[in-house]
Amino acid sequence: DVTLIEPNKTYTSCPLSNEVLSGHRDIASLQTGYAAAAKRGINVIHDHVASVDAAKKTVTTSGGQALGYDALVMAPGIAFNYEAVAGYSKEASMLLPHAYKAGEQTLLLKAQLEAMPDGGTFIISVPPKPFRCPPGPYERAAQVASYMKHHGKAKSRVLILDANDSFSKKGLFEQGWKALYPGMIEWVSGANDGKVERVDAAAKMCFTCLNDHKADVINLIPPHLAGKIAQQTGLTNAQGWCEVTPMTMESSVHKDIYPIGDCCIAGELPVYDMPKSAHMAITQAKVAAGAIVAKLNGLANPQPWYVNTCFSTLAPDYGISVVHVYRVTYNQFVYVKEAGGISPIDAPPLQRKLEAEYCVGWFNNVMADAFA
Fold first, then answer.
1. H helix runs in 121-169, sequence order
2. Please, what sign has the CA dihedral across residues 103, 109, 115, 119?
3. Which of 53, 116, 152, 323 is found 20 to 30 A from 73 (Cα to Cα)?
4. What DSSP designation does 190 have?
5. Which residues on adjacent β-strands are paired with residue 49?
6. φ, ψ for residue 323 (rounded to 5)?
């Protein structure tokens, strides 16, 4: 008996949501429901999980339902550590949107971008790693610049204030920014005073250690933690993330609970090897499902492999990508260098165009895979 407890009746994809900002995609194209899953025999309950009793193996919803389980897959996603940036809060996010959970926040940021004047400044504040979708802020910069370029705001600029000193696909992004949006995107690393420490939401100001930055739009992405229910259940470590057993995705803290997706970490501190991406989350889900089915049937656990495929589109005809593959050896995640790859820096325009098309194909396939 399989039950899915999901608070939302409509799912809005974070992958490809940056294209909503540029106007290359409508948000409805990112949305789906759960009817297909229900038709396949899954019990779908639209409610919040209020609590989990790991000892009694029960889940209680906000609506008062109590369900027992043999195995519990938990995918709470991320929570935001608003307090990590002085002056920021959930309320302030209505003035300085994070847009890192797709939907209302995406549309709010889009409206602010549309309203800003030509010659204005759009700031993206990037939190310290680890965070959901490592290339996301840098793809967002390109999509915002695309909107500016094609909608009468070509004198405007995007300023990326980054708490980190490097980022995913850095060389490819910088090459694309220069080719597509020359002079429009500036990146400031943490080592060069890029970390935003404080904001004034009303005045649209960001403050780093040494500088004050005035903007027309501030896209402040706060640091991340595992989702609230994971914290309440006691699944998180001192850094706020769920540690898992690589062979099965089972929690390192509570037996028969399988945290998957962006709430998880893997690898040695302070570096987490497996990125928080949609493709990785789907792979983790399949590893957990395989482990659960094997355990319930008294079978040996299958040998897991983990795969991450991450596309970034800088324009409708300009895509880049990276692939990571991980095996499990002695119950440790091991990155298989020879199995992955990244888009070549010297690729011809046709390859960039094809990768943008592959991105759409990837999205259609994973949505069909995840939502039946």
1. 136-150
2. negative
3. 323
4. G
5. 61
6. -125, 130
Write down the H helix ranges in the chain: 18-22, 35-39, 104-115, 136-150, 170-180, 228-232, 278-296, 349-371
Peptide bond into 270 cis (omega under 30): yes
pLDDT, tens digit only, all 372 positions of the chain? 999 999 999 999 999 999 999 999 999 999 999 999 999 999 999 999 999 999 999 999 999 999 999 999 999 999 999 999 999 999 999 999 999 999 999 999 999 999 999 999 999 999 999 999 999 999 999 999 999 999 999 999 999 999 999 999 999 999 999 999 999 999 999 999 999 999 999 999 999 999 999 999 999 999 999 999 999 999 999 999 999 999 999 999 999 999 999 999 875 544 446 789 999 999 999 999 999 999 999 999 999 999 999 999 999 999 999 999 999 988 888 889 899 899 999 999 999 999 999 999 999 999 999 998
Residues 308/279, Cβ–Cβ less than 8 Å: yes
Dihedral sign, CA of 314, 315, 318, 321?
positive
- Alpha carbon distance, N-terminus to C-terminus of the chain: 17
Calculate the alpha carbon distances from 144 to 104, 111, 127, 305, 357 in Å: 17, 12, 19, 36, 20
Half-sphere exposure of residue 164: CA atoms within 13 angstroms, side-chain side: 19
Closest CA relative to residue 140, chosen from 151, 130, 150, 148: 148
